[in-house]
Amino acid sequence: MEVIKKQTGAAFKLKKGQKLKVIDPQGEQVSDMVLFNAEDTREKISSGKTLDFEESILITKGNFLWSNRSHKMMEILEDTNGRNDFLLAPCSPETFQIMYNNPDYHPSCFENLYTNLEKFDIQPDDVPTAFNIFMNVQFAPDGKLSVDPPLSKAGDYVLFQAQMDLIVALTACSAEDSNNGSFKPIHYAIID
Ligand SMILES: [Zn+2]
Q1: Distance from residue 174's CA to the centre of ligand 1 (Å)
Q2: Which residues form the DUF1989 domain (predicted)?
Q3: Max alpha carbon distance in the chain (Å)?
């Protein structure tokens, strides 16, 4: 079991067929996840392709995560919470300036993704819209969005299986709105 401390991230390789378990150890925490093809990092996870091919904006057990080249990257085998978001980009320094009116430095998922991905020669501009595990984004019929506290309880997890050799980056989200105002860790495990 690996620990991602509050407001940090991690990046690692996952072989085709291996499983990745992402756990919310305390409840009400979000983990942003991005994926790259380990053989060619220009191929990466795509929100647009996933929502299109899965014909849903709510992605959970039984769904696949697809790439910008229309290949399956992961299958979701289990999802004990059942609520994830694939609409919103990772929180970034600008998120806190624009949406929180905070001009000071603030840790962010974007920074925690690209700094951990540097060792794989992946640049900040290469980071796509993340699959936001446990994130509770609600939408009204008129399209209005709101980021609500996660519904995840302590010990909830999502189990993924790699459909190709992957580079995976994960965070413990740094945005107050994503985790009900208290920053917490995320745990993960790689299972053969
Ligand atoms: Zn975040």
Answers
A1: 5
A2: 2-167
A3: 44
| Ligand 1 centroid distance, CA of 90 (Å) | 5
Distance 192 CA to ligand 1 centre (A): 28
pLDDT tens-place string over residues 78-111: 999 999 999 999 999 999 999 888 888 999 999 9
Between the CA of 41 and the centroid of ligand 1 the distance, in Å, is 22
- Residue-wise pLDDT for 123-134, tens only, equals 999 999 999 999
Are 167 and 36 in contact, with CB atoms under 8 Å apart?
Answer: yes
How far does the centroid of ligand 1 lie from the alpha carbon of residue 63, in Å? 23
| CA 176 to ligand 1 centroid distance, Å | 8
| Centroid of ligand 1 to alpha carbon of 112 (angstroms) | 9
For residue 24, CA distances in Å to 113, 137, 151, 165, 169 come to 18, 17, 11, 25, 16
Boundaries of every domain in the chain: 2-191
Alpha carbons 138 and 96: distance in angstroms, whole number: 20
